[in-house]
Amino acid sequence: DTAVSQTPKYLVTQMGNDKSIKCEQNLGHDTMYWYKQDSKKFLKIMFSYNNKELIINETVPNRFSPKSPDKAHLNLHINSLELGDSAVYFCASSPRTGWMETQYFGPGTRLLVL
Amino acid sequence: GENVEQHPSTLSVQEGDSAVIKCTYSDSASNYFPWYKQELGKRPQLIIDIRSNVGEKKDQRIAVTLNKTAKHFSLHITETQPEDSAVYFCAASINFNKFYFGSGTKLNVKP
């Protein structure tokens, strides 16, 4: 089941470091998303890209910067990591924006900031 | 923006009983409502969805109902089994390009 894949699966790092999480989908979808799931399991959208173009940028610190080199990839770079960034980050994709299609989630990246 | 509330946060039922999870949303423009199941340590997976032009949808032991006037929708699981134990999320979509999730319901089915 590798339709939407993320690397790494686990990430443990020190406060203040910079880290990246990568996401790739092989479904041919146009739209990709990043979600943050906190310790209380609440899923919150962070970013959405449609065909490499940013279409949603929720209230997220500018330490978080998404990058989409092509429509199959959406990476998330985090600068100056803070304790509160510890969470599970899920990437997702859907066929296209504007269609009532649901999303396919990646396996998640468990980030722990010490 | 949209606000989705989900209740209860935890639900414990005996195997074979029914389980009902309820969600409300705030924006009447929402027109697509998926439900996701997330097993421990795994990704959320779609189990059923409903669109605003439909009041009810059923898939085997799972059904979803939508009341647009009251702005609430519910997930019904009948004849629950231990493998139904998971966290369930509702979501509401506005203009099909944003998904707002509820806070999740941890369902425990006791054998």
Could you estimate the helical fraction of the residues of chain B in percent?
under 10%
**Which structural class matches the secondary elements of chain B?**
mainly beta
Multimerization status? heterodimer
Structure summary, number of beta strands of chain B: 11
Q: Could you write a compact summary of the structure shown?
A:
Chain A is mostly beta strands and 114 residues long.
Detailed description of the structure:
The complex is a heterodimer of chains A (114) and B (111). With 114 residues, chain A is mainly beta. In chain A, 0% of the residues lie in helices and 55% in strands. Chain A has strands spanning 4-7, 10-13, 19-25, 31-37, 43-50, 53-57, 64-70, 73-78, 87-94, 104-105, 109-113. In chain A, strands 2, 4, 5, 6, 9, 10 and 11 form a 7-stranded mixed sheet that branches. Chain A is globular, with a radius of gyration of 13 Å. Chain B is mainly β and 111 residues long. Chain B is built from no helices and 11 strands. Chain B has strands spanning 4-7, 10-14, 19-25, 32-38, 45-51, 56-59, 62-67, 72-77, 86-94, 98-101, 105-110. In chain B, strands 2, 4, 5, 9, 10 and 11 form a 6-stranded mixed sheet that branches. In chain B, strands 1-3-8-7-6 form a 5-stranded antiparallel sheet, with no helix packed on it. Chain B starts with a strand and ends with a strand. The mean pLDDT of chain B is 92. Classes of the chains: A mainly beta (114), B mainly beta (111). At the A-B interface, strand 4, strand 5 and strand 10 of A face strand 4, strand 5, strand 9 and strand 10 of B.
Keywords:
heterodimer; A: 114 residues; mainly beta; seven-stranded mixed beta sheet; four-stranded antiparallel beta sheet; 11 strands; 0% helix; globular; B: 111 residues; six-stranded mixed beta sheet; five-stranded antiparallel beta sheet
How does the SSE layout of this entry go?
The complex is a heterodimer of chains A (114) and B (111).
Chain A: E1 4-7, E2 10-13, E3 19-25, E4 31-37, E5 43-50, E6 53-57, E7 64-70, E8 73-78, E9 87-94, E10 104-105, E11 109-113
Parallel strand pairs in A: 2-11
Antiparallel strand pairs in A: 1-3, 3-8, 4-5, 4-9, 5-6, 7-8, 9-10, 9-11
Chain B: E1 4-7, E2 10-14, E3 19-25, E4 32-38, E5 45-51, E6 56-59, E7 62-67, E8 72-77, E9 86-94, E10 98-101, E11 105-110
Parallel strand pairs in B: 2-11
Antiparallel strand pairs in B: 1-3, 3-8, 4-5, 4-9, 6-7, 7-8, 9-10, 9-11
